[in-house]
Amino acid sequence: MTQLDPPAAPSGITLRQLQIFVVTAEAGSITTAAEQLYLSQTAVSLALRQLEKSIGATLMIRRRAHGVSLTPTGRSLLPLGRNILASVSDFGKSARNSDQVSGNITIGCFPSLGPAMLPNLMDKFMKANPEARIHFIEASHNELLEMLEMGSIDLLLTYRMGLPVGLIEQVVEVLRTGVLIGAEHPLAQGRDSIRLAELANEPFIMLDSTVSAEHARHTFANARVFPEVRYTSMNFETVRSLAGRQMGWSLSMQRPLSNETHEGRQVRILEIEDELVPSLPVIVARSQQMILSRAAEAFLKILTEEYPRPTIDSEHPDLLRKREVD
């Protein structure tokens, strides 16, 4: 007798999509489902469209004023969807009884945080959990938030800025702002700190990201300094190289161990003397609706060991007073 391979599941279906389908069907409304799942209505609609595309069938009819109604296909698949989600929950409970951490974990990371954080955390995670596999994705702040909503990533390392409701956050560290400037620049000579007003007439180099631009806006507003943005770049190393050639200065949350640029020139990070210096908390976030796997829990344990939780000024959570960081 010829042995037949089991039928392959439609590609692209995720548990998050199944969860959104079941919750929406039971709620009878995309709006209500979005509220229950702490998602945007756009994210719910997108997940449903992706699920329907994967299986090649329409599951529900959307009527703007009357919510949603299941098609015959949707009605037949709803019990199966519930059973799959219940089985996964049971599987997870059984997995937690095992002593060995295994499985996959995907970390989303804001690009400028990756070089200083990811290699160390991934190395320690794999050495402690050799049976597990860790993956990472670097993307823009908004893209990463969408991936977290859709369940494409388990945890997100990013800055605490422009975050939606419905996330569980843990502060990893609080980065203070410094001035990135060429080591040979006249204003960098014989000093370790500077007031932003001294740089007001110097060309500014902007790191081109939503988070960086918003952070620079807050910094300059606090100091009442508004320099001319001469250059923009999406690459932090390009910004460093331009500063190394004294073509401008920039703000930096990062403090690389090496002061040498790719061209072999030297840069420095000067502390900012202004009284109120905007800080930027780095957080690890996850969705309230996602159950943490043992691999994710193990990663969070290592993260907490490597970065003991910092103290943030309760009255000014977005600011660090200089006297507190000296």
Taken in chain order, the helices and strands follow as HHHEEHEHEHEEEEEHEHEEEHEH
What about the largest sheet?
Answer: 6 strands, mixed
Shape: elongated
Radius of gyration: 24 Å
What is the oligomeric state here?
Answer: single chain
Report the structural category: alpha/beta
How many beta strands in the DSSP annotation?
Answer: 14
User: What distance separates the N and C termini?
Assistant: 78 Å
Number of helices: 10
In percent, how much strand structure appears in the residues? 15-25%
Characterise the protein shown here:
The protein has helices spanning 15-27, 30-37, 41-55, 72-95, 114-128, 141-150, 210-223, 236-244, 294-306, 322-325, and strands at residues 60-63, 67-70, 103-109, 132-138, 155-159, 167-176, 178-182, 193-194, 204-207, 229-233, 250-252, 267-272, 276-287, 319-321. Strands 3, 4, 5, 6, 13 and 14 form a six-stranded mixed β-sheet that branches. Strands 8-12-7-11 form a four-stranded mixed β-sheet. The chain has a two-stranded antiparallel sheet with strand order 1-2. The chain is α/β, with parallel strands linked by helices and 326 residues long. It contains ten helices and 14 strands. α1 packs across α3 (41-55), α1 crosses α4 (72-95) and α5 crosses α9 (294-306). Residues 1-9 and 312-326 have low confidence and may be disordered.
